[in-house]
Amino acid sequence: MVARRKVAVVGVALSDCGRVDDATPYALHAQAARRALADAGLDRSLVDGFASAGLGTLAPVEVAEYLGLRPTWVDSTSVGGSTWEVMAAHAADAIAAGHARAVLLVYGSTARADVRAGRRTGTLSFGTRGPSQFEVPYGHTLIAKYAMAARRHMIEYGTTIEQLAEVAVQARANAALNPEAMFRTPITVDEVLSGPMIADPFTKLHCCVRSDGGAAVLLVAEEYARDCRTSPVWVLGSGESVSHAAMSEWPDFTVSPAAVSGRLAFERAGVRPAEIDVAEIYDAFTYMTLVTLEDLGFCGKGEGGAFVAKGRLRVEGGELPVNTDGGGLSAQHPGMRGLFLLVEAVRQLRGECGDRQVRRGDGSPPRLAVASGTGGWFCSSGTVVLGAG
Prior knowledge:
This protein is 33% helix and 17% strand. The protein has 13 helices and 11 strands. The strands form 2 sheets. It has a 9-stranded mixed sheet with strand order 3-2-4-7-1-8-11-10-9, sandwiched between helices. Strands 5-6 form a two-stranded antiparallel sheet. Helix 2 links the parallel strand 2 (49-51) and strand 3. It is globular, with a radius of gyration of 19 Å.
Protein backbone atom coordinates (compact mmCIF):
# COMPACT_ATOMS: atom_id res chain seq x y z
CA MET A 1 0.00 0.00 0.00
CA VAL A 2 1.35 3.41 -1.02
CA ALA A 3 1.65 5.91 1.82
CA ARG A 4 -0.55 8.97 1.47
CA ARG A 5 1.31 11.86 -0.09
CA LYS A 6 0.90 15.60 0.19
CA VAL A 7 -0.66 17.25 -2.84
CA ALA A 8 0.28 20.60 -4.35
CA VAL A 9 -1.15 22.87 -7.00
CA VAL A 10 1.83 23.80 -9.17
CA GLY A 11 0.28 25.22 -12.33
CA VAL A 12 -2.68 27.52 -12.94
CA ALA A 13 -3.77 29.51 -15.96
CA LEU A 14 -6.64 31.17 -17.77
CA SER A 15 -7.23 31.05 -21.50
CA ASP A 16 -8.20 34.22 -23.32
CA CYS A 17 -11.32 35.43 -21.51
CA GLY A 18 -14.09 37.96 -21.85
CA ARG A 19 -15.03 38.54 -25.47
CA VAL A 20 -13.57 35.71 -27.55
CA ASP A 21 -15.39 35.38 -30.87
CA ASP A 22 -12.79 33.40 -32.82
CA ALA A 23 -12.17 30.28 -30.72
CA THR A 24 -13.98 27.03 -30.01
CA PRO A 25 -14.46 25.66 -26.48
CA TYR A 26 -11.91 22.95 -27.33
CA ALA A 27 -9.37 25.60 -28.28
CA LEU A 28 -9.91 27.41 -24.98
CA HIS A 29 -9.41 24.14 -23.11
CA ALA A 30 -6.13 23.60 -24.95
CA GLN A 31 -4.92 27.14 -24.46
CA ALA A 32 -5.56 27.05 -20.71
CA ALA A 33 -3.97 23.60 -20.40
CA ARG A 34 -0.81 24.62 -22.24
CA ARG A 35 -0.49 27.73 -20.12
CA ALA A 36 -0.96 25.81 -16.86
CA LEU A 37 1.73 23.30 -17.81
CA ALA A 38 4.06 26.14 -18.80
CA ASP A 39 3.29 27.86 -15.51
CA ALA A 40 4.41 24.75 -13.66
CA GLY A 41 7.35 24.12 -15.95
CA LEU A 42 6.32 20.49 -16.42
CA ASP A 43 5.87 18.41 -19.56
CA ARG A 44 2.46 17.01 -20.38
CA SER A 45 3.97 13.50 -20.40
CA LEU A 46 3.87 13.63 -16.59
CA VAL A 47 0.09 14.05 -16.60
CA ASP A 48 -1.63 10.74 -15.94
CA GLY A 49 -4.87 12.10 -14.52
CA PHE A 50 -7.46 14.28 -16.22
CA ALA A 51 -10.73 15.89 -15.15
CA SER A 52 -13.19 17.78 -17.29
CA ALA A 53 -16.94 18.37 -17.58
CA GLY A 54 -19.38 20.29 -19.71
CA LEU A 55 -17.99 19.59 -23.19
CA GLY A 56 -18.33 16.63 -25.51
CA THR A 57 -20.61 13.62 -25.62
CA LEU A 58 -18.07 11.53 -23.74
CA ALA A 59 -16.52 14.09 -21.42
CA PRO A 60 -13.71 13.97 -20.50
CA VAL A 61 -12.68 11.44 -23.16
CA GLU A 62 -13.12 13.83 -26.08
CA VAL A 63 -11.28 16.68 -24.41
CA ALA A 64 -8.41 14.44 -23.32
CA GLU A 65 -8.09 13.20 -26.89
CA TYR A 66 -8.08 16.77 -28.20
CA LEU A 67 -5.27 17.61 -25.78
CA GLY A 68 -3.27 14.54 -26.74
CA LEU A 69 -3.56 12.93 -23.30
CA ARG A 70 -4.06 9.25 -22.43
CA PRO A 71 -4.89 9.40 -18.72
CA THR A 72 -5.13 6.38 -16.45
CA TRP A 73 -7.28 8.30 -13.93
CA VAL A 74 -10.27 10.38 -15.02
CA ASP A 75 -13.12 12.32 -13.48
CA SER A 76 -16.19 13.70 -15.24
CA THR A 77 -18.17 14.71 -12.15
CA SER A 78 -20.68 17.37 -13.21
CA VAL A 79 -22.45 19.23 -10.42
CA GLY A 80 -22.63 22.71 -11.91
CA GLY A 81 -20.42 25.53 -10.70
CA SER A 82 -19.02 23.51 -7.81
CA THR A 83 -17.71 20.84 -10.20
CA TRP A 84 -14.13 22.02 -10.04
CA GLU A 85 -13.77 22.17 -6.29
CA VAL A 86 -15.27 18.68 -6.11
CA MET A 87 -12.91 17.49 -8.86
CA ALA A 88 -9.94 19.06 -7.07
CA ALA A 89 -10.90 17.12 -3.95
CA HIS A 90 -11.16 13.88 -5.92
CA ALA A 91 -7.85 14.54 -7.66
CA ALA A 92 -6.08 15.28 -4.38
CA ASP A 93 -7.40 12.04 -2.90
CA ALA A 94 -6.27 10.06 -5.94
CA ILE A 95 -2.78 11.57 -5.87
CA ALA A 96 -2.47 11.12 -2.11
CA ALA A 97 -3.40 7.44 -2.48
CA GLY A 98 -0.91 6.88 -5.28
CA HIS A 99 -3.48 6.41 -8.06
CA ALA A 100 -2.08 9.32 -10.06
CA ARG A 101 0.99 11.52 -10.00
CA ALA A 102 -0.29 14.61 -11.82
CA VAL A 103 -3.92 15.55 -12.51
CA LEU A 104 -4.96 18.30 -14.90
CA LEU A 105 -8.33 20.01 -14.42
CA VAL A 106 -9.53 21.96 -17.48
CA TYR A 107 -12.60 23.96 -18.48
CA GLY A 108 -13.51 26.14 -21.45
CA SER A 109 -16.69 27.73 -22.75
CA THR A 110 -17.85 30.17 -25.41
CA ALA A 111 -21.11 30.92 -23.62
CA ARG A 112 -21.14 34.57 -24.68
CA ALA A 113 -20.01 34.03 -28.27
CA ASP A 114 -22.55 31.25 -28.77
CA VAL A 115 -25.44 33.54 -27.83
CA ARG A 116 -24.16 36.32 -30.09
CA ALA A 117 -23.80 33.90 -33.01
CA GLY A 118 -27.24 32.38 -32.44
CA ARG A 119 -25.85 28.94 -31.58
CA ARG A 120 -27.82 28.94 -28.35
CA THR A 121 -30.27 31.15 -26.48
CA GLY A 122 -29.59 33.18 -23.38
CA THR A 123 -31.91 31.00 -21.28
CA LEU A 124 -30.49 27.87 -19.72
CA SER A 125 -32.95 24.96 -19.56
CA PHE A 126 -32.43 21.83 -17.50
CA GLY A 127 -35.31 20.07 -19.24
CA THR A 128 -38.64 18.83 -17.95
CA ARG A 129 -37.84 15.31 -16.82
CA GLY A 130 -37.24 13.94 -13.37
CA PRO A 131 -37.81 16.28 -10.42
CA SER A 132 -37.96 19.28 -12.76
CA GLN A 133 -41.32 18.18 -14.16
CA PHE A 134 -43.03 19.32 -10.97
CA GLU A 135 -41.61 22.85 -11.15
CA VAL A 136 -41.19 23.70 -14.83
CA PRO A 137 -44.95 24.28 -15.39
CA TYR A 138 -44.79 27.21 -12.97
CA GLY A 139 -42.27 28.96 -15.18
CA HIS A 140 -39.58 29.95 -12.72
CA THR A 141 -36.15 30.26 -14.25
CA LEU A 142 -32.71 29.55 -12.79
CA ILE A 143 -32.41 33.22 -11.87
CA ALA A 144 -35.84 33.18 -10.27
CA LYS A 145 -34.84 30.28 -8.02
CA TYR A 146 -31.93 32.31 -6.63
CA ALA A 147 -34.16 35.36 -6.34
CA MET A 148 -36.68 33.39 -4.28
CA ALA A 149 -33.91 32.28 -1.93
CA ALA A 150 -32.62 35.84 -1.57
CA ARG A 151 -36.11 37.12 -0.77
CA ARG A 152 -36.50 34.44 1.90
CA HIS A 153 -33.26 35.60 3.54
CA MET A 154 -34.51 39.19 3.47
CA ILE A 155 -37.76 38.17 5.15
CA GLU A 156 -36.13 35.92 7.75
CA TYR A 157 -33.22 38.14 8.75
CA GLY A 158 -33.98 41.66 7.59
CA THR A 159 -31.28 41.60 4.94
CA THR A 160 -31.71 44.65 2.71
CA ILE A 161 -31.42 45.10 -1.02
CA GLU A 162 -28.76 47.73 -0.35
CA GLN A 163 -26.65 45.16 1.49
CA LEU A 164 -26.95 42.74 -1.43
CA ALA A 165 -25.99 45.55 -3.80
CA GLU A 166 -22.82 46.12 -1.76
CA VAL A 167 -21.61 42.70 -2.89
CA ALA A 168 -21.73 43.86 -6.51
CA VAL A 169 -20.16 47.21 -5.68
CA GLN A 170 -17.21 45.62 -3.88
CA ALA A 171 -16.72 42.98 -6.59
CA ARG A 172 -16.47 45.79 -9.12
CA ALA A 173 -13.99 47.66 -6.91
CA ASN A 174 -11.79 44.56 -6.95
CA ALA A 175 -12.25 44.16 -10.71
CA ALA A 176 -11.03 47.73 -11.18
CA LEU A 177 -7.63 46.49 -9.97
CA ASN A 178 -7.62 43.57 -12.44
CA PRO A 179 -6.55 44.50 -15.98
CA GLU A 180 -8.09 41.27 -17.30
CA ALA A 181 -11.55 41.85 -15.80
CA MET A 182 -14.39 42.27 -18.27
CA PHE A 183 -15.96 45.22 -16.43
CA ARG A 184 -13.78 47.61 -14.39
CA THR A 185 -15.69 50.88 -14.11
CA PRO A 186 -16.70 51.46 -10.46
CA ILE A 187 -20.40 51.28 -9.63
CA THR A 188 -22.50 52.54 -6.74
CA VAL A 189 -25.30 51.00 -4.72
CA ASP A 190 -27.76 53.40 -6.38
CA GLU A 191 -26.62 52.25 -9.83
CA VAL A 192 -27.17 48.62 -8.85
CA LEU A 193 -30.64 49.36 -7.51
CA SER A 194 -31.73 51.46 -10.49
CA GLY A 195 -30.85 48.86 -13.13
CA PRO A 196 -33.41 46.84 -15.08
CA MET A 197 -35.22 44.23 -13.03
CA ILE A 198 -34.31 40.65 -13.94
CA ALA A 199 -35.98 38.61 -11.19
CA ASP A 200 -37.20 40.34 -8.04
CA PRO A 201 -35.19 41.40 -6.05
CA PHE A 202 -32.31 41.09 -8.56
CA THR A 203 -31.61 43.88 -10.99
CA LYS A 204 -29.06 43.40 -13.76
CA LEU A 205 -25.97 44.18 -11.67
CA HIS A 206 -26.97 41.63 -9.04
CA CYS A 207 -26.35 38.99 -11.72
CA CYS A 208 -23.10 37.67 -13.16
CA VAL A 209 -21.73 38.72 -16.51
CA ARG A 210 -21.80 36.39 -19.51
CA SER A 211 -18.35 35.78 -20.98
CA ASP A 212 -16.17 33.36 -22.87
CA GLY A 213 -13.09 31.77 -21.33
CA GLY A 214 -11.31 28.79 -19.89
CA ALA A 215 -9.10 27.80 -16.99
CA ALA A 216 -6.76 24.99 -15.97
CA VAL A 217 -5.23 23.76 -12.72
CA LEU A 218 -2.46 21.19 -12.35
CA LEU A 219 -2.12 19.16 -9.13
CA VAL A 220 0.87 16.92 -8.43
CA ALA A 221 2.27 14.65 -5.75
CA GLU A 222 4.72 16.30 -3.40
CA GLU A 223 7.80 14.65 -4.92
CA TYR A 224 7.15 16.41 -8.23
CA ALA A 225 6.58 19.83 -6.70
CA ARG A 226 10.33 20.38 -6.25
CA ASP A 227 10.80 20.19 -10.02
CA CYS A 228 8.39 23.04 -10.75
CA ARG A 229 9.20 26.63 -11.57
CA THR A 230 6.50 27.86 -9.17
CA SER A 231 6.14 27.68 -5.40
CA PRO A 232 3.74 24.90 -4.45
CA VAL A 233 0.34 25.71 -3.01
CA TRP A 234 -0.79 22.82 -0.83
CA VAL A 235 -4.26 21.29 -0.71
CA LEU A 236 -4.92 21.27 3.03
CA GLY A 237 -8.49 20.05 3.15
CA SER A 238 -11.69 19.75 1.14
CA GLY A 239 -15.35 18.97 1.46
CA GLU A 240 -18.32 18.37 -0.82
CA SER A 241 -22.06 18.23 -0.34
CA VAL A 242 -25.30 18.02 -2.29
CA SER A 243 -28.63 19.27 -1.05
CA HIS A 244 -31.61 19.02 -3.41
CA ALA A 245 -32.76 18.97 -7.02
CA ALA A 246 -36.27 20.32 -6.54
CA MET A 247 -36.79 23.58 -4.71
CA SER A 248 -39.62 21.94 -2.80
CA GLU A 249 -37.09 19.56 -1.25
CA TRP A 250 -34.78 22.33 -0.02
CA PRO A 251 -35.35 22.45 3.74
CA ASP A 252 -34.23 26.06 4.23
CA PHE A 253 -33.67 28.65 1.48
CA THR A 254 -31.31 30.54 3.77
CA VAL A 255 -28.83 27.67 4.18
CA SER A 256 -26.65 26.44 1.32
CA PRO A 257 -24.76 23.13 1.08
CA ALA A 258 -21.58 25.15 1.76
CA ALA A 259 -22.59 24.83 5.41
CA VAL A 260 -21.57 21.16 5.11
CA SER A 261 -18.73 21.30 2.58
CA GLY A 262 -17.13 24.23 4.40
CA ARG A 263 -17.26 22.56 7.80
CA LEU A 264 -15.69 19.42 6.37
CA ALA A 265 -12.97 21.34 4.51
CA PHE A 266 -11.95 23.39 7.53
CA GLU A 267 -11.99 20.37 9.84
CA ARG A 268 -9.85 18.33 7.46
CA ALA A 269 -7.45 21.23 6.93
CA GLY A 270 -7.15 21.84 10.65
CA VAL A 271 -7.83 25.57 10.33
CA ARG A 272 -10.59 27.94 11.38
CA PRO A 273 -12.46 30.39 9.14
CA ALA A 274 -10.94 33.25 11.16
CA GLU A 275 -7.49 32.19 9.95
CA ILE A 276 -8.34 32.57 6.25
CA ASP A 277 -6.68 35.51 4.49
CA VAL A 278 -8.61 35.50 1.22
CA ALA A 279 -11.80 33.84 -0.03
CA GLU A 280 -12.87 33.05 -3.57
CA ILE A 281 -16.61 32.36 -3.58
CA TYR A 282 -18.94 31.47 -6.42
CA ASP A 283 -21.00 34.56 -7.24
CA ALA A 284 -23.45 34.04 -10.08
CA PHE A 285 -25.67 36.34 -7.98
CA THR A 286 -24.99 38.65 -5.08
CA TYR A 287 -26.96 36.49 -2.67
CA MET A 288 -24.63 33.55 -3.31
CA THR A 289 -21.70 35.48 -1.88
CA LEU A 290 -23.62 36.64 1.17
CA VAL A 291 -25.12 33.31 2.18
CA THR A 292 -21.90 31.38 1.45
CA LEU A 293 -19.97 33.70 3.76
CA GLU A 294 -22.44 32.82 6.49
CA ASP A 295 -22.35 29.09 5.79
CA LEU A 296 -18.55 28.96 5.70
CA GLY A 297 -18.52 30.50 9.17
CA PHE A 298 -17.15 33.95 8.46
CA CYS A 299 -20.18 35.43 10.20
CA GLY A 300 -23.29 34.12 11.92
CA LYS A 301 -26.44 32.98 10.15
CA GLY A 302 -28.46 36.05 9.24
CA GLU A 303 -25.49 38.38 9.77
CA GLY A 304 -24.27 38.32 6.17
CA GLY A 305 -25.96 41.59 5.25
CA ALA A 306 -24.27 43.55 8.02
CA PHE A 307 -20.97 41.74 7.30
CA VAL A 308 -20.77 42.74 3.64
CA ALA A 309 -22.12 46.25 4.20
CA LYS A 310 -18.92 47.36 5.93
CA GLY A 311 -16.64 46.96 2.92
CA ARG A 312 -15.02 43.79 4.22
CA LEU A 313 -14.85 42.16 0.78
CA ARG A 314 -12.52 44.71 -0.84
CA VAL A 315 -8.90 44.06 -1.71
CA GLU A 316 -8.09 47.57 -0.58
CA GLY A 317 -8.91 47.89 3.09
CA GLY A 318 -11.15 44.84 3.42
CA GLU A 319 -10.92 42.54 6.43
CA LEU A 320 -11.66 39.48 4.28
CA PRO A 321 -10.94 40.15 0.60
CA VAL A 322 -13.43 38.13 -1.43
CA ASN A 323 -13.39 37.43 -5.17
CA THR A 324 -10.23 39.43 -5.58
CA ASP A 325 -10.29 39.29 -9.39
CA GLY A 326 -13.79 40.79 -9.54
CA GLY A 327 -15.58 37.45 -9.51
CA GLY A 328 -18.35 36.35 -11.79
CA LEU A 329 -20.13 39.63 -11.18
CA SER A 330 -17.43 41.67 -12.93
CA ALA A 331 -14.36 39.71 -14.09
CA GLN A 332 -15.69 36.82 -16.18
CA HIS A 333 -18.30 34.06 -16.00
CA PRO A 334 -18.25 31.59 -18.89
CA GLY A 335 -20.60 29.07 -17.28
CA MET A 336 -19.31 26.71 -14.60
CA ARG A 337 -16.86 29.17 -13.03
CA GLY A 338 -15.56 27.11 -10.11
CA LEU A 339 -12.13 26.50 -11.67
CA PHE A 340 -11.51 30.24 -11.88
CA LEU A 341 -11.84 30.43 -8.09
CA LEU A 342 -8.97 27.97 -7.67
CA VAL A 343 -6.77 29.84 -10.16
CA GLU A 344 -7.24 33.15 -8.36
CA ALA A 345 -6.74 31.63 -4.90
CA VAL A 346 -3.44 30.06 -6.00
CA ARG A 347 -2.21 33.26 -7.62
CA GLN A 348 -3.01 35.21 -4.47
CA LEU A 349 -1.09 32.74 -2.30
CA ARG A 350 1.87 32.96 -4.67
CA GLY A 351 1.81 36.76 -4.57
CA GLU A 352 1.32 37.14 -8.33
CA CYS A 353 -1.71 39.42 -8.52
CA GLY A 354 -0.21 42.84 -9.08
CA ASP A 355 -2.46 45.73 -8.07
CA ARG A 356 -5.09 43.39 -6.66
CA GLN A 357 -2.62 41.47 -4.51
CA VAL A 358 -3.84 40.92 -0.96
CA ARG A 359 -1.26 41.62 1.75
CA ARG A 360 -1.12 40.60 5.37
CA GLY A 361 -0.33 43.09 8.10
CA ASP A 362 3.42 42.59 7.60
CA GLY A 363 3.16 43.11 3.84
CA SER A 364 3.55 39.42 2.95
CA PRO A 365 1.15 37.55 0.64
CA PRO A 366 -1.72 35.51 2.13
CA ARG A 367 -0.93 32.21 3.80
CA LEU A 368 -4.37 30.60 3.70
CA ALA A 369 -7.16 30.77 1.13
CA VAL A 370 -10.50 29.09 0.60
CA ALA A 371 -12.28 28.45 -2.69
CA SER A 372 -15.95 27.51 -2.46
CA GLY A 373 -18.04 26.66 -5.51
CA THR A 374 -21.81 26.39 -5.79
CA GLY A 375 -23.74 24.35 -8.36
CA GLY A 376 -27.28 24.41 -9.68
CA TRP A 377 -29.60 26.48 -7.50
CA PHE A 378 -27.61 25.81 -4.33
CA CYS A 379 -27.89 22.12 -5.18
CA SER A 380 -24.22 21.32 -4.58
CA SER A 381 -21.12 22.74 -2.97
CA GLY A 382 -17.41 22.05 -3.02
CA THR A 383 -14.92 23.79 -0.74
CA VAL A 384 -11.13 23.60 -0.83
CA VAL A 385 -8.70 25.10 1.70
CA LEU A 386 -5.27 25.97 0.28
CA GLY A 387 -2.01 26.92 1.99
CA ALA A 388 1.05 28.70 0.66
CA GLY A 389 4.26 26.70 0.27
